[in-house]
Design goal:
16 helices, elongated, transmembrane helix, 2 domains, alpha+beta, 4-stranded antiparallel β-sheet
């Protein structure tokens, strides 16, 4: 997907630039010579840094159109700062990423029986805001003169390029949901699960019927089933049913590469735990190396104390190191994951301690 996104963004940039020059009846050389170099550089730098504003506007678009169609906010996150709308708290997420990210997660209100749950405006809201912003600046560039014209054009590029970047991802999601009632059902379950977990429920607390598609093995109709499988996987770990968790892990591997998943950091640590537990030495060593080489995976792993202990005990066979890790159980209160993940780690740590003792 990312390769297609990069290609679409590149083609869009060339097309927009060509359209601007043709519309202004200018050549590239004429444009460069008509504006002082320092002004060109300043405008381009400003345009580059406005991408952060447009990422926030994109997520605000989801929020605005979600509210208009009856959705309620679960959380709104900018970089590592998250506003939890359910508990009305602001907290700092311990994430390590190379690019600025934002996320708005909402859940639909309970509808009256027979009323269809809307999804299009919520999903397309970010795209619409980016497109409206981009078209406004781009159109204005043809009515202004000199540096003001170029400034409007430059400021139209970030929202345009973000629109095309998100178009493949969110457009594919919208198309998938529109073509399949099952995909829509799974999508709505995902939103509701995120709301329940954000509200403080554990994986064990989640209603069993949320995982019907997993039990019936019909979750692979689209990539939407990936999140459902991840939560089912964590749910089995939380009740210490490692055999069932391993079955789910194998099912995942049959359909997707977890290292390319948006949930890769969680899946990598969960997989490493099971590799260690079932004595898959080579697979565990390989995955441990991959985690160490990818910053986002490593950051999450460093908070996954139970996974570290399992790897130390079953793969490294280092009893002293394992006991030292288990002694740091108090560090769980300092990590920045959801309450459900925190409870999961406590369960696994207690099990490991009993197993080792």
């Amino acid at each position: 997907m990312k390769l297609k996104q990069f290609f679409l963004v590149f083609v869009s940039f060339i097309a927009l630039s060509f359209g601007y020059l043709v519309g202004r009846n200018q050549t590239f050389d004429q444009l460069i010579n008509s504006i002082p170099l320092i002004q060109l550089v300043i405008v381009m730098l400003i345009a580059v840094y406005t991408q952060y504003i447009h990422i926030m506007l994109h997520e605000s678009g989801h929020f605005l159109f979600g509210k208009l169609t009856g959705y309620r906010l679960v959380f709104f996150q900018l970089s590592n700062i998250r506003y939890d709308a359910i508990n009305k708290k602001i907290r700092r997420m311990s994430i390590n990423q190379s690019v600025f990210k934002a996320q708005c997660v909402m859940t639909p209100s309970t509808n009256k029986k027979g009323l269809q749950t809307p999804y299009f405006l919520y999903l397309a809201g970010g795209l619409l805001v980016n497109l409206i912003t981009a078209v406004t600046f781009y159109t204005g560039s043809f009515f202004l003169q000199g540096i003001w014209s170029f400034s409007a054009f430059a400021l139209s590029l970030p929202p345009f390029l973000l629109f095309f970047w998100y178009l493949l991802e969110e457009g594919t999601l919208i198309r998938t949901i529109s073509q399949s009632e099952r995909a829509k059902k799974i999508f709505l379950k995902e939103l509701n699960i995120k709301a329940l977990l954000e509200a403080g429920q554990t994986f064990e607390d989640l209603p069993a019927d949320y995982f019907d598609e997993i039990e019936q093995s019909i979750f692979t109709e689209s990539r939407l089933g990936e999140y459902l499988l991840l939560v089912a996987y964590q749910r089995q770990l939380s009740v210490l049913d490692f055999e069932k968790a391993e079955q789910l892990r194998r099912q995942y591997d049959q359909h997707w590469n977890f290292l390319q998943s948006p949930y890769a950091r969680k899946l990598a640590s969960a997989n490493l735990f099971l590799y260690a537990l079932f004595g898959r030495y080579d697979a565990a060593k390989k995955l441990s190396k991959q985690i160490d080489q990818r910053r986002e995976l490593k950051t999450y792993y460093e908070q996954s104390i139970a996974v570290q202990a399992a790897y130390s005990f079953f793969i490294k066979i280092d009893i002293n190191q394992t006991k030292q890790i288990l002694k740091n159980k108090s560090a769980l209160s300092q990590i920045s994951v959801s309450q459900a993940e925190l409870q999961l780690q406590k369960k696994l740590l207690d099990w490991l301690k009993e197993y080792i003792d």
